[in-house]
């Protein structure tokens, strides 16, 4: 599983990355997590509002700091 957290480094972006890491740790799901901070790369993924969450190439969220339950739901949909 590949998970991308997209954002320039704002507090919401850090919160989303932390939620992703916590869900993976709690569930034991193996995933490669990539943090993308470059604005041009973020836009090239189709994300116009950050933070963004992409799992296995599918945009799951844009412009919203998800809580752990929301992140867990999206990760479980893709496993």
From TrEMBL:
Transmembrane domains' residue ranges: none
UniProt KW Disulfide bond keyword: yes
Signal peptide (from-to): none
Keywords: Disulfide bond, Redox-active center
Superkingdom of origin organism: Bacteria
Location of the Thioredoxin-like fold domain: 1-76
Pfam families linked: Thioredoxin_3 (PF13192)
KW Ligase (keyword) present: no
Recorded coiled-coil stretches: none
Record-annotated active site: 10 (nucleophile), 13 (nucleophile)
Gene3D superfamilies, A to Z: Glutaredoxin
Bridged cysteine pairs (disulfide): 10-13
InterPro entries the UniProt entry points to: Thioredoxin-like_fold, Thioredoxin-like_sf, THIRX-like_proc
Name listed for the protein in its UniProt record: Small redox-active disulfide protein 2
Organism: Desulfoscipio gibsoniae DSM 7213
